[in-house]
Write a structure and sequence with these properties.
Four Helix Bundle (Hemerythrin (Met), subunit A); about 325 residues; 6 strands
């Protein structure tokens, strides 16, 4: 990933703000160590300075189905939002990301300007309407300031050196949020592994109740037939044929096999260090596990087996909750 970002910035050679020293910094900053799983939740903060200006950056991320970026940046940096979006998407991959950049100038120099002519025009119109409609005159300043185009960029061109410092500071904040995500991802990975292994362990207990439920079904059917028809009127051959039908109907061999395979595949994907975006795939595998567990419950015909199904469902729900926050 870091080589791709390095090449990206090198291609912007027409932009004078890219210097070799900065590219080398980005190459180092983007050599992020990913754990086997990464959470979508994280927070990072960093500060930088350019001349007499302090640049503060905050990045927050939450879980989302897609990559969703929102920016709160000074008007001077608005023109760079497309570049920022690409930079963040390449690093964080997935999630709802909020980036906030604030600047504080020691000299008090503002990064915005007020369109005074437009402000006066709005004020005159509002005042005239108030007098015409008999509305009490109020302080219109706050309302007018919120109207588009009243407040805008200062008109000064963004200094390439300043933008270089801004990107460097954002890079530091992103490195921190990725560390945060990796740490939380490792905890999530351990919990997911424990939950899947719990399902595997519970699945091994299922055969204990398989023979018992068939015996109970046979006894229940025999008892019902004897009560309604009388034992002397029951055709034993036909009875055995019906038993075979019911036994085949409630057979759970395929469900056990498929559920076991899904669990193995889940763990295999969990341990895969090549794939950095595992959330969607793990979610799909979890859905397949749920189908097999539900079918086991539908074919249970045993209170003991139903208890095992409930236990597996409980583990699976916790798996789904965790996977929803995985990149």
């Amino acid at each position: 990933m870091h080589s791709e970002l390095r090449n990206y910035f090198l291609t912007q050679s027409s932009e004078k703000y890219v210097c070799l020293k900065y590219v080398e910094y980005l190459s180092q900053a983007t050599q992020t160590t990913y754990c086997m799983l990464q959470s979508m939740t994280g927070y990072g903060r960093a500060s930088g300075t350019y001349k007499d200006k302090t640049i503060n950056v905050e990045v927050r991320s939450l879980n989302s189905k897609f990559m969703d970026t929102r920016f709160r940046v000074p008007a001077t940096y608005k023109e760079k939002e497309g570049e920022l979006k690409r930079f963040i998407s390449d690093r964080l991959l997935r999630g709802k990301v909020d980036l906030m950049v604030e600047t504080d100038s020691a000299s008090g120099e503002a990064d915005f300007s007020i369109n005074k002519n437009l402000f006066r025009a709005y004020y005159r119109e509002l005042k005239e309407l108030s007098e015409e409609l008999g509305i009490d005159q109020k302080d219109y300043i706050t309302s007018i300031m919120r109207i588009p185009n009243v407040v805008g960029p200062s008109g000064k061109e963004l200094d390439p050196e300043e933008w270089k410092v801004v990107l460097e500071t954002i890079g530091k904040a992103l490195a921190k949020i990725i560390d945060f995500r990796n740490t939380e991802g490792q905890v999530t990975s351990d919990d997911l592994r424990a939950r899947v292994e719990s399902i595997q362990s519970t699945l091994k207990e299922v055969p204990t109740f398989e023979e018992e439920r068939i015996v109970k079904m046979r006894e229940r059917l025999q008892q019902n037939l004897n009560e309604y028809l009388g034992s002397e009127n029951v055709d034993k051959n036909r009875f055995e044929q019906e038993m075979l039908f019911y036994i085949e109907k409630i057979d759970i061999s395929e469900e056990k096999s498929r559920l076991g395979q899904h669990c193995e595949y889940f763990l295999e994907q969990l341990n895969d260090t090549k794939n950095k975006q595992k959330g969607r795939k793990l979610s799909f595998i979890g859905q397949e596990m749920g189908r097999e567990i539900n079918t086991l419950g539908a074919k249970a015909y045993s209170s003991g087996l139903q208890r095992l199904v409930v236990k597996m469902k409980d583990d699976l729900e916790k798996i789904k909750e965790q996977v929803a926050n995985v990149v």
